[in-house]
Write a structure and sequence with these properties.
Pathway: Carbohydrate degradation; glycolysis; D-glyceraldehyde 3-phosphate and glycerone phosphate from D-glucose: step 4/4. It catalyses: beta-D-fructose 1,6-bisphosphate = D-glyceraldehyde 3-phosphate + dihydroxyacetone phosphate. Belongs to the class II fructose-bisphosphate aldolase family. The protein has one domain: Aldolase class I (TIM Barrel). The chain is an alpha/beta fold. It has 15 helices and 14 strands. Helix 6 crosses helix 7 and helix 9 packs parallel to helix 10. The strands form 3 sheets. Strands 1, 2, 3, 4, 5, 6, 9, 11 and 12 form a 9-stranded parallel sheet that branches. Bound molecules: zinc ion (ZN). Zinc ion (ZN) binds next to loops.
Amino acid sequence: MKLTILALMLPMVCNSFSFAPPRQHPRLLSRLHASETSLKSERFADELGIPCEDECSMDCFPNMPESIHPGVLSGQGLMDLLKDAKDRKYALPAVNCVTSSSINTCLEAARTNDAPIMIQFSSGGSQFYAGKGLDNTNYKAAIAGAVSGAFHVRTLAEQYGVPVILHTDHCAKKLLPWVDGLLDASERYYEKHGEPLFSSHMIDLSEEPISENIEICEHYLRRMSKIGMVLEMELGVTGGEEDGVNNEDVAKEDLYSKPEEIWEVYERLSKISDKFTIAAAFGNVHGVYAGDIDLDPEILTRAQTYISDKLGPSAPADKKPAYFVFHGGSGSDLSDIRKAIDYGVIKMNIDTDTQWSYWEGIKNFEDKFSPYLQTQIGNPDGADKPNKKYYDPRECLRAAEVNTVDRLTQAFSDLNCQNILGLGPPEEPENTLGPRRGGLPV
Ligand SMILES: [Zn+2]
């Protein structure tokens, strides 16, 4: 029923009635030089030979620019999504994923909330995706793991029918060979498909002197913008601890970026390309702590004004030239999150809170079915009763996923990122249960 309505609406939105003049397919529009490549199909599903029906087969969304389509975005589609977020004052949740289960959870949450999402891998998460039993000399496991995760995201994002920005998180100087490996993969993918494998990468040289930070970012922006990718750079330090990087004892003034520093980054990078975002520090801290966090999102609006004044007549009409990203969002006050969005934040990282929700789902599952989870045979229903359907890992992992979809729904709400695409609520999934496929007592 819903899809019939969509089928009626979409041709009007996507402007592809048969009497309309021939035009380029929206998915090709978002690619830079598709006509120069061997690109044959518009969808990844076609290339893989898997079904692509319902939301998967849509060309674009009722409420979005036509360059934005189900699947991974890059080039024009990616920039149009960032601009749409800034204009409509929402921010994308950017969730650190470590397994196919956490990726699927993000895609399910995005479709449930009728919204785009960012899926990102840290270097440690990429390595985990490949398996901690695999040697990681020269970051080879982290490179292979991130590429493997990227193909998983590309395969399933279309199936869930949501637009995804596929990103990697903090890359300090010593980790640059990891991102170099991923850029090699994106450049190779671009040669064949006219788009990069990933949408964007973060380069975090906030521990280096600012001149070196900007110089290296210039190098990467040159390389990335050629294939339609976006660079996220970090300025100032995000406090706390994440993925093995400990900034718990950093000096307090380093947690706040200065408008003139943000301008310097903006001025230098925009000479190369407009495809960059800035993780400016405004007191953000990774993780959730008992101590007070002193966020000062006003830094962001002062920086937008400072940059606009410098740009003069060439400043954009909204006087918000910079795209900001928000690290250390877990545990932040809603009022600070909303202010940051008002001031040009288009993405907020979420890691700690979804780590907790995933674990809490497993913990609650164990609490609920504890007597059925102690031995392979024997439970309160009888000494000879098997417990297989309780300890099947799909059961506790699904509990983790469901609990995390709920937590992400709160994040989508906090970030004003609900009912963005115009799809409406998803239909109940069918054919997912069977005699051998689940169904524990509720
Ligand atoms: Zn971060």
